[in-house]
Amino acid sequence: MFINRKVNFGLSLFLKGKKMPVALFVEFEIKPQLKAAFVKRVCEHRNNVLSKEKYCQQFDVLIPEEKENSICLYEVYNNAEGFKKHTETPHMKSYRRDTQDMIVSRSRLFSTVVK
Asked: How many angstroms separate the CA atoms of 71 and 42, rounded?
């Protein structure tokens, strides 16, 4: 599953009572031979999110210059409830399924956006 138990516990604390915008920063290490396919699929996913999820304010796909096989995502949602809805969408489930074998590792950082 995309979010393991440890992250689920942290996510439940993160989501509790949040009404401010929230951000997710994800760094993936991708199998080198699958990087182009991953970038194509994650860009399709970004387009789905931005067109179908009114609670998503921003979704950027980043390619770090100093890490050859890394791809990063920066996503901003209206609030924690919007982020939770995002994780339950059919297009999110499809994206997870399609990319799970392309990923070597993943790290996530959930944050509250300060305005």
From this structure: 9
Residue 55, CB-side half-sphere exposure with 13 Å CA sphere: 17
**Helices 5-15, 80-87: inter-axial angle, 10-degree rounding:** 150
* Digit-coded pLDDT (tens) for 67-102: 999 999 999 999 999 999 999 999 999 999 999 999
> Rounded to an integer, what distance in angstroms lies between the CA atom of residue 115 and that of residue 70?
29
What is the rounded (10 degree) CA torsion for 79, 88, 36, 24?
20
Structure tokens at 34: 């699958």
- The full set of domains in the chain, from first to last, is 5-112 (3.30.70.100)
What DSSP element (H or E) covers 23? strand 22-30
Rounded to two decimals, the pTM is 0.83
Residue-wise pLDDT tens digits, 8-24: 445 554 555 557 899 99
Q: What is the pLDDT of residue 13?
A: 46
With contact defined as beta carbons under 8 Å apart, do 109 and 14 qualify?
no
Amino acid at residue number 84: K
